[in-house]
Amino acid sequence: MFVMHNSTAHSRSHNGSIACGGRTCIERLARATTPHCPITSSVITATRAKTISMAAAAAAPTSNVVPVDTTLNPLVASVKPSKTMALTDLATSMKEAGIDVIGLAAGEPDFDTPAPIVEAGVAALRAGYTRYTPNTGTTALRKAICKKLQDDNGLSYSPDEVVVSNGAKQSIWQAVLATVSPGDEVIIPAPYWVSYTEMVRLANATPVVVPTTPEEGFLMSPEKLAATLTPRSRLLILCSPSNPTGAVYPKEHLEALARVVGAHPRLLVLSDEIYEYITYAPAKHVSFGALPGMWDRTLTVNGFSKAYAMTGWRLGYLAAPRIYAKAAAIIQSQSTSGASSISQQAALAALALGPGGGEPVQQMVRAFQERRDFVCARLRGIPGVNLAEPSGAFYVLPEMSAFFGPGAHADGFGPVPDSDTFCRYLIEKANVAVVPGDAFGADSCIRISYAASLETLGKALDRIAASLDPKIYKRRTGSS
């Protein structure tokens, strides 16, 4: 059985009174936010100014020491911080300060890791399984991953074509770094996971974003892909089921994309399948590398965080043709080396639960589907919301452009020109944290995670609906 955490927090100030959710309260949490995020930067200015003044006084020179050069690598300086992490951290800090905020920004299940997995981790600790493992992962785990990929996905790999890493994010980063060169183009359908574009920039390559719409089901068409290709195209990143849209590519659609991919002389595909098990019938997950002619071109990334509720265990993997797997292994050997020995033992227990994660995972999936249905029904009840129903993962990405832009205005808050400001309005006035769509390349949308109890989701949606009441909220000029 799995245990669901109730994420609703009690609201009280230090003197026992109800704490407000407005700007004054959030300013107290400035030190927990990032100055690069527009949502949070507006609330930290006063605190930052005082802090800088104090730091300057403390750092006053006492000798003739030459000031140090604090220049950053231009590649790092160009990278944007993750808004999902910034908002999740802000919501956590607000809760710790006694503010009754509901955080729907995090990308992780709210369930406990299934008991057999936890017990395997505890047993590994007690057995002294606490030393370094081989760089690419234990042989036992890599063999088990190969079996899983064959049985579940129709993908045939040998253990030396699998690299186990500290989370799927590391696997993706190493796959990008191993395959693209400066000046190469990486095609990324939007809306996209926040880190894809930044990883590409860190690799000194160029992200080429291909927009999709709710009317298209947030699926990139083969025609759009073909129109995007150039001689510099090197990598296509596909995420199915998708973060942030929940879209699942049907097999026929993937086959049409594969025909375009196969006609290009150097195009590879990074298939991010971390949400594989979290799909809702009639949708079915299909691995891109299992399509005819695509094995040689595909680097498949998966992991344990989402399906098995193992986000804190930090374990993912890359499966790819030997030349790419070896390159990723070299990168890992000179950065983090092997993943946690305890987590790898726990992962063996996770894979032993059976196809689709077995009953423990399927219980979570049924709960996610119930929540999806609830959230979609509630959002459709708000005039002006345009919603493509997700077929997987645990996010909805409603199109909300009727609520921001020219003429949009909230009483006691001011103009609402974009999704950033709209989400700042929700966290300040409704005490609900969601993520602005511009973080995903879709400024007309917001992302809501439904990895929370139905009670918490109902309370959050009540607050959102109340904050958009026409009596206090004026929608964008021209919106119907």
Automatic annotation (TrEMBL):
PROSITE patterns: AA_TRANSFER_CLASS_1. Its cofactor is pyridoxal 5'-phosphate. Belongs to the class-I pyridoxal-phosphate-dependent aminotransferase family. This is Aminotransferase class I/classII large domain-containing protein. Keywords: Aminotransferase, Pyridoxal phosphate, Transferase. The keyword Hydrolase does not apply. InterPro entries: Aminotransferase_I/II_large, AspAT/PAT-like, NHTrfase_class1_PyrdxlP-BS, PyrdxlP-dep_Trfase, PyrdxlP-dep_Trfase_major, PyrdxlP-dep_Trfase_small. It comes from Volvox carteri f. nagariensis. One of its GO terms (molecular function) is glutamate-prephenate aminotransferase activity. GO terms for biological process: aromatic amino acid family biosynthetic process, prephenate pathway.
